[in-house]
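pinging the channel bc i need a second pair of eyes. not urgent but kinda urgent?? the chain im working w is below, pasted from the shared doc
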Amino acid sequence: MVCEQFEEVMKETTRKWLSAGISLSKDKSIIVACPDCEEGTLMIKDEPIMDRKGKVERWLICDKCGAWNTILGADAE
């Protein structure tokens, strides 16, 4: 029972991160709540990918809890 509840929470958190990534890939200027703590705001940090011109590794980082995720190969703007 506990395992099933944990899996459901993880699935929901994963869905929230995917949604945040999709939204921020369309418009980096929008404000998106942290999928983990839901209190902080996601900050964006783009790091160029040296062997893929015009592409970046986009870091999404919560300004409150420090949770993070990345989007590999996002288009540089």
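so The longest helix spans residues 2-26. and The chain has one domain: 2-75. — does that match what u expected or am i reading it wrong
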